[in-house]
Amino acid sequence: MRPALKISAVLSLIIIIASHPLYAASYQGIINANDINVRSDSTVSSRIICKINKGDKVEVVRELYEWYKIRMPKTAPSFIKKTLVTVIENNTAKVLKDNVNIRMQPSESSWILGRADKNEVVNILEDKGGWYKIEPVNDSFGWIHKSFVDKASVADEITQEAKLTPPQEKEAAVINKEPVLDETIILEGIVKPYGKVFRRNATHKLITPDKKVFFLKGNKENLDNLNYCRVKVTGKLINIKGPNPVVEITKIEALD
Known about the structure:
Helix content: 10-25%
Structural class: alpha+beta
Number of strands: 19
Distance between the termini: 54 Å
Oligomer: single chain
Order of helices and strands: HEEEEEEEEEEEEEEHHEEEHEE
């Protein structure tokens, strides 16, 4: 085959793969009904992990025919064995090994919902004997039938956030809402308290070794417990205007 034909064939294959349901790009969705099951697999006979309701937001990471694979919602039960973490402070812990199983129940025979890697920071919700109940980690997933998910637009997100915001802050919420950019960023640096970003309790900033400053949007309790610690942050840029970009955290790892 001639080089030009080879290139054309490869490009055609890439287009076909990219358009296939299995390779759909991730996006935000909004649940359109109440009492909807999040399941362990893409079948109606698979086990139910948790339920979500109308108006809840989910991150769709994959499409498989009539089903969406989603990042696990915060309502999902998630457990990690105590011996696999070390408590940093209060209700925050650091994972001690790579590829640690996150389970649906506090039992080694329970269904594996996802996995966490060494130094990843998790938020502890409850002590369960030899286990901790935690907030779902970034790499934990479930399945939901696609008929129950509508694709969220930026306007939808603004409207929903404005409804949840006190009246005196609604105007600021609409003005300052920025769409999440389709770009993942990985940073290392020192976490420090900040105060407010865009008239809201921001939480914190990250100062990189080259003295660049990024505002962090994430779990405030986790970030409070990591003040003045060296961390690795994986997240998405929300706003790049001004001297200090805002990063929405999807994963944070303690390096100290």
